Amino acid sequence: MSALLRDLRFAARVLAKSPSYTFVAVFTLALGIGANTAIFSTVNAVLLRPLPYAQPERLVVLTETQPKFEEMSVAYLNYVDYRQQNSTFVDMGAFNDASVNITGKGEPERLKAQQFSQSVLPVLGVEPLLGRNFLAEEDRPRGPKAVILTHGFWQRRFAGDPDIVGKPITLDGAPWDVVGVMPPDFRFFGTSDVIIPIGLRADEPNYQSRGSHPGITVVGRLKPDVTIEQATADLRAVGDGLAKIHEQVQDTRARLQDMHEDLVEDLREGILLLYGAVMFVLLITAANVANLMLARAMTRQKEMRIRAALGAGRWRLVRQLLVESSLLGLVGGAMGLLVALWGVDLLAAARPQAIEVLGPIEVDAPVLAYTLAVALGTGLLFGLVPAIYASRQDLAQALKEADHRATAVGGHLRVRNLLVVVEVALALVLLVGAGLSLRGFAKLADVDPGFSPGDVLTMELSLPTTRYKTAAEVRRFWTELERRVAEIPGVVSVSASSGLPFAGASESSFLMAGEPRVIANTKMAVAYFVDAGHFETLKIPLHAGRTFTAHDTEETPLGLVIDQALADKFFPGQNPVGQQLQEGMSDKGIAEIVGVVGHVAHYGLDGPQRTQYQMYYAYRQLPAPIQARIASGMTLSVRTQGEPLGYATQVRAAVAAVDPEQPVFAVQTLEQYIADSVAPRRFTSALLSVFAALALVLAAVGLYATMAHSVAQRTHELGVRMALGAQPRHVVWLVVRQGLVLVAAGAALGLAGALALTRLMTSLLTQQVSPADPATYVGVTLLLVAIGLLATYIPAQRATRIDPMVALRQE
């Protein structure tokens, strides 16, 4: 230990005597280690950190599957039977998303709600911070109305009132008793404001139908030593028994997945891609600092030879040099930690919502341990080769050496050149990856969404059933609101709909006319429930027939507007207008196609549509109970003549004029929905671009440093050439050619690596860009060559200023 402390003190003195060298090395390491730590904090938060529940490895998520549908929510009655009849679970709990209005004290507000069965919190092993969980009698139809507040909402709305438990609050116009407040770190499949019992809805028609899958997911805790495979077999045996009794359960199977895997499966590839990119940056950083150390080792050859002559063995010299590089790594790591803290704040602000639900991105104990390991490992990595070369000494030469100037060693130069080639290759791989991602992202702007999103303001409203009990009351609200909004100066058109492109919609089954109603014949389409102004407001083009009018009501035959994709698939070469479909949303069973409109990119611009077909219902034609349920929560869309958000205050005032207690929420433009849909891709592309730019700069600096040092070592040679008549342009070309050889070698390796590695990015690329896109490869290669030319030209230009006589005298 004393020897190590002695080596550390000596290393600190040596580094302090070379402040320029030390600053450059530490600064370079801080960038590489800082970027690496920042991304690892995301890897840790999303992929490595256990879920904040008791024994999370035993938690699983249950959904259902059918031959035509890989994953569906669970039918409520099936959940009840799964829970009662299984033998492999400690317990199960059902949950769903919802929303409620809060009124009374303070401004009316729309809240995000989660519906929990009474068993969810015990399954998770979580208890409220204040109060209690739901009681069994509260988790059933017409039970007492109990609500649990999340910590953030409790602080925001009630200023953290410690006596809130037991007090009533008004949700959807009815009093609810607050029975608990959740801990501050509680998150469960997203964020919410309040938690309400799911059993209150258990007697609703879509909860009582085994053929209905109303958004319910089930979380379960496995018994000790039970595997997911065993539990799946157990639940499928339960399902087989149900299928013998209930026709609607036939072909429905239970599907289990580890809970953590269910949360991160869509995020893993993108995060690992970013982590791989930042590891490339770290390797380039290590190569850069190794290059610096090799150059410095050449200037310390005489020191090493004298120390060897005085009895220092080779291992002693290697150890001292490794201590120096490790100290550099630790100091660089400490500075990198500051960079990481800044980077983590940026990541936390820019992260997509899908990452946010997994918890905070932060520099915690595992991240600090990782940073220490990376700093030490990087120090050893970039210090090993210079240490080995610097410790190779010839004692006889050391004793005879009288020249104060260190001489170049051929091996050093070869290693430095090799390091530059590696840097260039790694930088090119990153540039190609970033280029493909950016090129694909840019091409999304050319994708036609099928409607005109510009100048459209949207906001959501949910009418409480306690005050809007009938379809007629709901219709009157929307009719009056649309009339008032249409009268606002600058409003072009207005509509209300349940479902918007990029903003969510239902999916509905249909069959062709005359087909038997069996699962094998069932087809699915995105179902929009709209009013007469929907197509005008969104500017969805009409291809055939007509759209809806004010005359399409419950008393008229049910009409459907379908999209062109559905028409092309099921009515090829025919006019679909006037044809009939069997549908499942109304009690009429048969609907006539009255129009065909263009297809809209409902699920995003950047990939195949999960459900290819779309159909539109006039919501006023649906049976009164369904009409009331759908129209009680819809989106108001307003096309304006100017900046849409500038109309938000006037539209809010129109809502208040119709119902002063009615909150509005999700006020944003239709263009923002599109922007949000590509947010994860934008996040990944932006970070890849930053890392690629950093890699390019580091590779250029490494190339410049190598060429500058090469020119310094070749002073005598270049002086002789110029004394013998070599022109400056010949000297420039001599140096530039040497640099271009390194760039070409690195580019060749990088292109080969990029072709292999970018195929792993397939799911992150858009359909419009191939992993082998020629324009991207050519573009980034030319960029790299241009930067390489600049990095070699500057030292080459300096070489032309060498005085031949001075160079000859130095030799």
Automatic annotation (TrEMBL):
User: GO cellular component terms?
Assistant: plasma membrane
Q: Which residues cross the membrane?
A: 21-48, 272-295, 321-344, 367-390, 418-438, 686-705, 731-757, 777-796
Question: Pfam families from the entry?
Answer: FtsX (PF02687), MacB_PCD (PF12704)
Where can this protein be found?
Cell membrane
MF (Gene Ontology): transmembrane transporter activity
Q: How does it sit in the membrane?
A: Multi-pass membrane protein
Q: Which residues form the ABC3 transporter permease C-terminal domain?
A: 278-394, 690-804
* Principal subcellular localization: membrane
Q: Which domain of life is it from?
A: Bacteria
Question: Domain MacB-like periplasmic core spans what residues?
Answer: 22-237, 481-598
Record key words, sorted = Cell membrane, Membrane, Transmembrane, Transmembrane helix
Family membership, please give it. Belongs to the ABC-4 integral membrane protein family.
UniProt protein name: Putative ABC transport system permease protein
Organism annotation: Nannocystis exedens
